[in-house]
C-alpha cells in the first residue's frame, strides 16, 4: 500500500525502534488503526510495516478531517509529536521536507489550474508557508536555515539528520569539513580575490557597473531569442523586447524577476542571467516565474543547468533541454558559464 506524501516528511522507524514496535504488535495486536486517505497511508506507515513483518492483519480507518494541505501537515505533525521524541534538528529537517513538499504540490496545483481545474494548493504563498512550517514544527528559523542548506548541498547528511542518526550541528560541521559547501575558502583561486567575488549564500549586494557579456556571447544570445522576448536581470545588456532588472534605471520593468506580475505565457522567449547571490527560495521562485511567463523558449545562464536527469526543465515538464553552450569569462578565473536552452516545441 502506498504512503501519502505528507506522511513521508517524517522518517521511518529503523533498527531497534522498529523491532520493538514489531514485538509490541506481535504480543498485543494492533492497538491503533492505520489512518488512510484515498487509498494511501496518512498515519501508521510503521505500524503497517510492522504488521506485515509479524503477520498481523492491519486495521484501517479513513481520515475524516480537512484535506487542505496545511491541515494534513498539522494532523501528521500531531500524531507524530504524540509518540515520537524528535530533536530540534530533526524537527527542522521535517519542516524543510514539508516545505519542499508544499513547493512541489503548489507547482503541480498551478499546472492543474492552468489546464482549467481549480486547486486550493495553488494559492499557497511560499514565503508565508515557510514561516508557518517553522512554527508548526516547533523549531527555530536558524535550525531550518541550516537544515535547508544541508538538504540542498549535502542530501545524504540531511537524510541522516532526518533519521536522527546525526545531530544537525555535527552534520553542519561535517559538511564544512568535507568542503561541500560553496565558500571562498574551498575554492583556492577565488580565495585570491579575498572574498570580492560574490557567490551563492553570501550577503553581497550584487549590481553590475558594465556589460559583462562579451560581444560574441551577446551575439549568440541574440540569435537564440525567438518572438517577443523578456530579458530578466538584464543589467546593461540591451537584448530583449522587454528588459527587466530590479537595480537598473531605464529598463522597461524595474521589478523583482521572481515576482514580475506579468501575465502567464506573455513572452515567447524568457532569458535570464541571474545574480549569484540569490537566496535558495528566490532561485526556485525565479525558475518557476520563467516557466510561467515563457510560451516557447527559456534561456538560462548560470553555474547550474535547471534540468532533471531526463533533460526536462525542473519546474515545468513541457520544456525540454535542447542546447547547452559553455563559455569562460576572463574574470572568475575561467570558471565555466553555462547557457542552457529549453524549448516547448510550440
Ligand atoms: C549577472 S548580472 C547580469 C549581467 C548581464 N547579463 C551582463 O552581461 O551584463 C545580474 C543582474 O541581476 C540584477 N538583479 C539582482 N537581483 C535582482 C532581482 N531580484 N530581480 C531582478 N534583477 C535582479 C542585477 O542588478 C544585475 O544587473
Please characterize this protein's 3D structure:
With 346 residues, this protein is α/β, with parallel strands linked by helices. The protein has two domains: 172 residues, no CATH class; 129 residues, Vaccinia Virus protein VP39 (Rossmann fold, 3-Layer(aba) Sandwich). Helix content is 40%, strand content 14%. The chain contains eleven helices and nine strands. The strands form two sheets. A six-stranded mixed sheet has the order 5-4-6-7-9-8. Helix 4 packs across helix 6, helix 4 crosses helix 7 and helix 6 packs across helix 7. Bound molecules: S-adenosylmethionine (SAM).
Care to give the gist of this entry?
The protein is α/β, with parallel strands linked by helices. It has eleven helices and nine strands.
Helix and strand sequence? HEEHEHHHHHHHHEEEHEEE
Q: Could you describe the largest sheet, including whether it forms a barrel?
A: 6 strands, mixed
Average pLDDT over all residues: 83
Outline type: elongated
Structure ligands: S-adenosylmethionine
Integer-rounded radius of gyration: 23 Å
Instruction: Determine the N-to-C terminus distance.
Output: 39 Å
Strand line-up in the sheet with most strands: 5-4-6-7-9-8
Number of helices: 11
Helix/strand-derived class? alpha/beta
Question: Could you tell me the number of beta strands?
Answer: 9
* Beta-strand content estimate: 5-15%
